[in-house]
Amino acid sequence: MGFSKTIQMFIFDGNPNGRIMCEISNWNGRVYKVSRNELLEFSKRSDSDNTGVYFLFGKNDNNEDTVYIGEAEKIMTRLKQHLNEKVYWNDFIVVISKDNLLNKAHVKYLENQFYSLAKNANKTVIANSSIPNCPSISEFDEAMLLEFISNTKLLVNALGYKTFDTIEDNKINTQNSESEFYIKTTRGADAKGIIVSDGFAVLEGSMIATSTVASMSASLIRIRTSLLEKGIINAEFKFTRDYSFTSPSTAAAIVMGRNANGKTEWKTSDNKPLKEIEENQI
Q1: In Å, how far are 143, 167, 183, 236 from 162, measured between CA atoms?
Q2: How many CB atoms lie within 10 A of CB 149?
Q3: 96 - beta bridge partners?
Q4: pLDDT tens digits, one per residue of 28-71
Q5: Pairwise CA distance, residues 144 & 98, whole Å
Q6: Nearest to 86 by CA among 68, 70, 108, 63
Q7: Per-residue model confidence as pLDDT tens digits over 238-271
Q8: Which residues pair with 259 in a beta bridge?
């Protein structure tokens, strides 16, 4: 069970699209979110060149969300170098310690762990050309850095970026058997899903219909085709990993190969539709 947290957020100049500083009570870490055009203003802060990790957020040529994960002993110096590189970014997030106690081994470890988290979550295209190396650190340092990772994930999410969030992080716990839903129809569809905080997730191993009907909307066909091309659904029409959709209806449509109302198509093991479960909980 997670613990409640108190987040302190300072919005510079009252502009939520510019610079934001975040802290968590009783933690010596600090997170900044800054837009690219506010880099000069950020550089004026005394801690802008501390040792830390950073994330560059942008979009690629396919309009997909991208992230570059990096580390530096002097954050501001490294960010200036990124201005002249090919990978374009719009915003960045910096993670430092307020007393600048992070060293090179610490931030290399954090870089590696955040890369792995982003890879596992698979919600954002990672712009790194190689996997960051993971240094050896002491058990004492690892315990401290695991707190950094946990709190950074929380603050990055609070700032609107889902880069490191997994299905498990977003699962809605109902404490009963009505937390899992199923679809089993003709043309091979046999899927299992759960409600998550940002939509509805179809779980690894779920089978989708082997074909689509003529009336299926073009937008849904594009989503299905994209999932097949990316290997999220393999050649056997099976989900290779958990995958989150924006709504139960989109998830149901991809599984069934036709337009669908997810509130009525997804049902519990005792045949109760999602719509009924939600109404009873309310």
Answers
A1: 24, 11, 27, 29
A2: 18
A3: 30, 52
A4: 999 999 999 999 999 999 999 999 999 999 998 888 899 999 99
A5: 14
A6: 68
A7: 999 899 899 999 999 999 999 999 999 999 999 9
A8: none
Q: What tokens were used for 244?
A: 């989150």
DSSP per-residue letters across 25-52: TT--EEEEEEEGGGHHHHHTSTTTTSSE
Look at residues 144, 146, 133, 152 and name the one whose alpha carbon lies nearest to residue 55.
152
Residue 244 CB burial class (10 angstroms; 0-12, 13-18, ≥19): buried
Rounded to 5°, the CA angle 171-172-174 comes to: 130
Q: Are 36 and 91 in contact (CB under 8 A)?
A: yes
Residue 155: which H helix or E strand, with range? helix 139-158
What is the pTM assigned to this prediction? 0.78
- Identify the H or E element spanning 279: helix 274-281
Helix (DSSP H) and strand (DSSP E) numbers for the chain: 9, 11
